[in-house]
Amino acid sequence: MNITEFLFNILIFPGFLFLLALALGLDWLDRKLIARFQGRVGPPWYQPWADLLKLFAKEDILPAGTNVVFTSLLPLLSFASVMTALFYIPIAFRRVPSFQGDFIVIMFLLSVPSLLYFLAGWATKGVYSIIGGNRSLLQYFSYEVLFLLAISGTIITSNSWSIEGIRQAQFEQGAFILPQIFGFLLALSGLIGKLKRGPLDIPKANSEVIAGPLTEFSGKKLALWILTNELQTVAGLSLLIYCYFGNLWQMNKLSGFLIFSVLLVLMQCLLSAISAMYARLRIDQLIRLNWYLLIPLSLLHNLYLIIK
Amino acid sequence: MINKSKTPKIISWARKKSPWILHFNTGGCNGCDIEILSLLTPYYDVERFGILKESTPRHADILVCTGPVTRQVKTRLLRIYNQMPAPKWVLAVGSCSCSGGVFSGSYNILGGIDQVLPVDMYITGCPCRPEAIIDGIIKLLEEVK
User: Fold this and answer.
1) Cβ B63 vs Cβ A58: under 8 Å
2) Would the CB atoms of A218 and B85 count as touching at under 8 Å?
3) Which terminus in chain B has less CB density within 10 A, N or C?
């Protein structure tokens, strides 16, 4: 691989620019769909771009007494970890370096922003930030277990801890979406908690804790946090598509790209519809729902897959 | 506030297309607040102009004030204004925040918002109509360079 191709891959196609366009496009789709569901017109297509550009050009202030270096590192680290996770996730069914256990690496890298989100609340020392940070940690302990348990159904069936192994198993056994639709739905509900979308936007609930841990952030740092969350949406949805629809890709790059886009848009529609339909849960309701109902269900699902 | 000659075109475009507002009642009767909140309803839907209502001054671009400035609220108003990152603008909504309105001359009232902060746009009316507020914000954004 020569240097131009390398730079092109990093910066343009599967790399930064393409992911940015994809993430902001999905964000616009989400806002527009929720607006349409509520009977509104909704923002124009360039809205996420304008928001990000404006935030990057704004003044960056922090409350007195915060550690500036630490607070600046938090959004950068979370952005970097999501980008690294996206390097291992086959966006648009392209080939990625795969090794035994890369699934765990991706899950870890995707959960780093949640922990940094909590630290952001503590570092900025606002009252609402600390409450939001505590809530995000409580939420983390419920959805992360559910997401990993539900999606590990595909690992059990394919008998492999690598993304490539899961894909190979789906070529042999067919897509996992039909036999494991139950696990897919459980993983999707875990993903909603991971992305802090409605109805599980408890850590950043606007009417309760202002903006959660991001209350004291402004300018570039806020823009990076928003961008991280949007890239996390792309990463989470791509992971689900790859684990449950892995066999739809047939050697042809163009058809793989088209199938990927259609699936991505459909799943974003599903997430937006869920956000528009349901009211926000309380934190204790979420934990009760997850630990009493959804996690036992996903354990039973995995038990069934092992016995079968 | 900002150096007009140095702002690139794409940045000023972004600022025009994404004004996030912070709503603050400086001592009014709540009439204008109801009109501002109706901006977010499906009937007016200001998100089509990119206007979002933020809850924290650190995310906001435009401070939308309603009501006259009372003596008690003056320090808090200044504190909230100082917490907003530049570039920022102030919108005085309603007759009271433009001049003090029916409260002017009262012992506990300082007057309009311009007694405390530099106001960029005045919107009169008691209470002012939501259409007038949208018009005011759009006209304010036309001035943004």
Assistant:
1) no
2) yes
3) N
Tell whether A43 is covered by a domain: no
Q: Are A188 and A244 in contact (CB under 8 A)?
A: no
Contact B37, B64 (CB under 8 A): no
Note whether A58 contacts B: Cβ–Cβ < 8 A: yes
**Alpha-carbon torsion angle A24, A27, A29, A33, nearest 10:** -160
Asked if A17 and A11 count as a contact pair (C-beta separation under 8 A), the reply is: yes
List CB contacts (< 8 A) between B47 and chain A.
31, 35, 40-43
Please say if the pLDDT value at position B3 is more than 60.
no
- The answer to whether A29 and A272 have CB atoms below 8 angstroms apart is yes
CA distance A207 to A280: 11
Residue A24 in any domain: the answer is no
Judge whether A44 lies within some domain: no
- Residue B1 forms contact with A (CB below 8 Å): no
Residue A284 touches chain B, beta carbons under 8 Å: no
How close B108 comes to chain A (CA, Å)?
A: 30
- Taking the CB of residue A67, how many other CB atoms lie within 10 A of it? 12
pLDDT along chain A (308 residues), means of 10: 71 77 92 91 91 89 85 91 86 72 88 89 86 89 88 86 82 79 90 87 82 86 91 90 78 75 90 90 88 91 87
Query: How many angstroms separate the CA of residue A276 from the nearest CA in chain B?
Result: 14
Q: Which residues are CB-contacts of A192 (< 8 A; sequence separation ≥ 6)?
A: A143, A199, A200, A271, A274
> How far is residue A277's CA from residue A173's CA, in Å, rounded to a whole number?
35
**B13 contacts on A by Cβ (under 8 Å):** 50, 53
Q: How far apart are CA A144 and CA A139, in angstroms?
A: 8
Number of domains in chain A: 1
Integer Cα distance of B100 and B113 in angstroms: 8
| DSSP for A86-134, written as a single string | HHHS-GGG------TTHHHHHHHHHHHHHHHHHHHHHHH--HHHHHHHH
| Complex confidence, ipTM | 0.85
Kindly list the residues from chain B whose CB atom is less than 8 angstroms away from the CB atom of residue A210. 55-56
Which DSSP letter does residue B128 get? P
Its domain, for residue A220, covers 63-307
A161 domain-assigned:
yes
Whether A59 and B10 lie within 8 Å, measured CB to CB: no
Q: CB distance B18–A47 less than 8 Å? A: yes
Q: Does A222 touch chain B (CB under 8 A)?
A: yes
Structure tokens at B76: 């808090």
